[in-house]
Amino acid sequence: MEDVLNEEIEVIKGMVGPEDHVICVLSGSVDSTVAASLVHKAIGDGLHCVFVDNRLLRYKEREHMMETFEQDLQLPITCVDAQSNFLLS
């Protein structure tokens, strides 16, 4: 498994230059979390994660997501409040 991880990190490094930046939109699912973690291992500070809060989430899910990504995974993340784009007042 370690070989697969290292191989994928090298593939990402080959696709993203040392001065390039990558935006990753996170849904909170396992897929987007693993993708963001893998890209972060490959390019570090060149990764910029975004979580879009559409206000259609479960109770306290926004807070849980932000805490998990910032504190537990140490991923750089910005939360965008997009409620007005999804719900009419």
Explain what this protein looks like in three dimensions.
- With 89 residues, the chain is of the alpha/beta class.
- The protein has a single domain, classed as Rossmann fold (3-Layer(aba) Sandwich).
- The protein has helices spanning 2-15, 30-43, 61-72, 83-86; strands at 22-26, 47-53, 77-81.
- Helix 3 links the parallel strand 2 and strand 3 (77-81).
- Helix 1 crosses helix 2 (30-43).
- It is elongated.
- The relative contact order is 0.18.
- The model has no long low-confidence stretch (mean pLDDT 91).
Low-pLDDT stretches: none
Order of helices and strands: HEHEHEH
Approximately how much helix is present in the residues? 40-55%
CATH architecture, please?
A: 3-Layer(aba) Sandwich
Question: What layout of secondary structure does this protein have?
Answer:
Elements: H1 2-15, E1 22-26, H2 30-43, E2 47-53, H3 61-72, E3 77-81, H4 83-86
Parallel strand pairs: 1-2, 2-3
Helix pairs in contact: 1-2
What's a quick, concise take on this entry?
The protein has helices at 2-15, 30-43, 61-72, 83-86, and strands at residues 22-26, 47-53, 77-81. The chain has 89 residues and is an alpha/beta fold.
Keywords:
single chain; 4 helices; three-stranded parallel beta sheet; alpha/beta; Rossmann fold; 89 residues; 3 strands; elongated; GMP synthase [glutamine-hydrolyzing]
